[in-house]
Specification:
single chain, mainly alpha, 3 domains, 14 helices, two-stranded antiparallel sheet, Lysozyme
């Protein structure tokens, strides 16, 4: 008897429907279930080693809670999840490169998808801000400046640098990436208390005992569901995606008084696009009270921006 191996099985995400049809197993009796490692090895053989996209560097658990969120993202949440998937092509390379350079799992980048949908201007009910949703105190503790004109929690690169440090510190304490995510969501103090009270540091056991806030019980399953779909979107019904272009920018030192909108006009790009690249400039300008600030401009436009600063700086100073 021949059947499609692993089709919508507990792992659900290894490759496209074509690859699934190629992976078949003869069943003469009931074999022992394959381990996750064995499944990955089998898939790698079938794909001639070209499976980097399907390899995970976070532990992957598939259970009813993960399944529920996969179903949600495929149905009621499909419209916004599709938008997230398309945006991921723009932001994931930057985030994952920093995680990889720090020796952290690159799949932690899917936290940003769940935290904010990659929105630099996202603000939670708890006043958490930016792609990584830092609250004010934690952001400051990890070097993110916040003033009347600047909020570096909204800067993708700087907030990712801060998140790398924070995640590393959390892992040193909790030793489990599931607990790292849980503590990131609910706060390390609250998680410490619950671990001590219930005498277990197993995330799923804490969930089973209803020891965590509901949002935190859903947080890890959401991340797992997101990364499973993102690594094989066709398998989950997300076809014909329109991937956003990856970020391609240069950094240039803008002097005091520079108005981002007027700079965009000079560079012949939309004001929104330049504001999006510099979302940390909450008012869209650099005040006269500072000597200058590094901003991002589209790749290839740094010289044009510097010429603008040299010739037009005095003319466009903000009063």
């Amino acid at each position: 008897m021949i059947f499609r191996a692993f089709f919508l099985s507990a792992f659900l995400i290894f490759t496209s429907a074509t690859a699934w049809s190629a992976i078949k197993v003869k069943v003469a009796s009931q074999p022992a279930p394959l381990t996750l490692k064995q499944k990955l090895q089998l898939l790698e053989q079938k794909q001639n080693g070209k499976t980097d996209h399907f390899i995970f560097d976070l532990p992957v658990t598939y259970n009813s809670k993960v399944s529920r969120w996969i179903t949600f993202f495929q149905t009621r949440g499909k419209k916004f999840f599709r938008d997230w998937l398309e945006k991921s092509y723009r932001y994931m390379p930057t985030i994952q490169a920093q995680l990889k350079a720090a020796g952290l799992p690159t799949d932690l980048a899917y936290m940003v998808m769940i935290e904010s949908g990659f929105s630099a201007t996202a603000v939670s009910s708890a006043k958490a801000v930016g792609p990584w949703q830092f609250i004010g105190t934690t952001g400051k503790n990890y070097g993110l400046k916040q003033t009347h004109w600047l909020d570096e929690r909204r800067d993708l690169n700087k907030s990712t640098q801060a998140a790398v440090k924070y995640l590393r510190d959390l892992h040193k304490e909790f030793g489990s990436w599931y607990l790292v995510a849980a503590s990131y969501n609910m706060g390390e103090g609250g998680l410490r208390r619950r671990i001590k009270k219930h005498g277990t540091s197993d995330y799923w056991e804490l969930v089973r005992r209803n020891a965590l806030p509901q949002e935190t019980q859903d947080y890890v399953p959401k991340i797992l569901a997101a990364l499973m779909i993102a690594k094989a979107p066709n398998l989950y019904g997300f076809r014909n995606l329109n991937p956003a272009s990856p970020l391609n920018t240069e950094i240039v030192l803008a002097p005091s008084g520079v108005d981002i909108d007027l700079l965009a006009d000079h560079l012949n790009i939309t004001r929104k696009s330049l504001r999006d690249l510099n979302a940390q400039l909450t008012s869209g300008y650099i005040p006269k009270s500072v000597s200058g600030y590094n901003i991002r401009v589209p790749a290839g436009s740094a010289l044009l921006a510097k010429d603008y600063f040299r010739v037009h700086n005095k003319k466009y100073l903000i009063d």
